[in-house]
């Protein structure tokens, strides 16, 4: 694709009970299926954890970019993403997401504005919008 500014490639062997390696070998992980999916809950990770990890990092980057543009310091912020494997009405499997952001030190209305702008900017949010059930929640900081 002519407009690609970065791409990453990973290869999987063995599905949920195998291994995944990125083309540059920076990611080399064992995969294990969780008990909830009939697996042995082994020591490896799974596709939902990998998706949640990538989404959380990407979303937090978007959150920081929006705040930086508004000259607001959110250095103590955090983003958690929960990815669920769900059964759709037609019986097929699908995904759901819940994005929780903590943005301490600024008023709630400003934090909510930054959160919504980050959801509009984040490439993961753009790619999944309208395709999977998703919640975006501003949570109180501890």
From TrEMBL:
Gene3D superfamilies linked: 2.20.25.10, 3.30.300.20
GO biological process: response to oxidative stress
InterPro entries: KH_dom-like_a/b (IPR015946), OHR (IPR019953), OsmC/Ohr_fam (IPR003718), OsmC/Ohrsf (IPR036102)
SUPFAM superfamilies recorded: OsmC-like
Protein family per UniProt: Belongs to the OsmC/Ohr family.
NCBIfam families, alphabetized: organ_hyd_perox
Protein name as it appears in the record: OsmC-like protein
Species in which this protein is naturally found: Frankia casuarinae (strain DSM 45818 / CECT 9043 / HFP020203 / CcI3)
């Amino acid at each position: 694709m002519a407009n690609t500014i970065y791409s990453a490639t990973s290869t999987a062997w063995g599905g949920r009970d195998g291994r995944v390696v990125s083309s540059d070998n920076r990611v080399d992980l064992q995969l294990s299926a969780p008990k909830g999916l009939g697996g042995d809950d082994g020591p490896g990770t799974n596709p939902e954890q990998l998706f949640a990890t990538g989404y959380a990092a990407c979303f937090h980057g978007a959150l920081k970019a929006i705040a930086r543009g508004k000259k607001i310091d959110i250095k103590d912020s955090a983003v958690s993403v929960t990815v669920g494997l769900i059964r759709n009405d037609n019986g097929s499997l699908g995904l759901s997401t819940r994005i929780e952001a903590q943005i301490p030190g600024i008023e709630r209305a400003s934090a909510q504005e930054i959160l919504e702008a980050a959801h509009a900017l984040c490439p993961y949010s753009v790619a999944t919008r309208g395709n999977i059930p998703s919640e975006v929640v501003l949570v109180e900081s501890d």
